[in-house]
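Render ArsR family transcriptional regulator in 3D.
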Amino acid sequence: MENKEYTVKQEQLARFAKAMGHPARVAIIEFLIKQNSCFFGDIHEVLPISKATVSQHLKELKDAGLIQGEIETPKVKYCINRENWKIASMLFAGFFGQCVCEKESCCE
């Protein structure tokens, strides 16, 4: 039986896509892109969700490597992980750039 595995790029792309798979996480990323860094309370104030839910979304984004956080007692400061953001940008650009259909519909 042949061993079939996903490529490292496929795994990375899926991980980033999963992390971006909720509108609150997209909103958090958009907010952080406009800031050099910000504190948890700043993020919570711009989203229509509870603090606990914001924390969970931040955890997902951090676990995927799209953001990073530093503890500055008694607060936590977050920012975009620039290195991984560049990797994600290249992976998504390469993925979406694969389809170069000349027709309006590929089913025609």
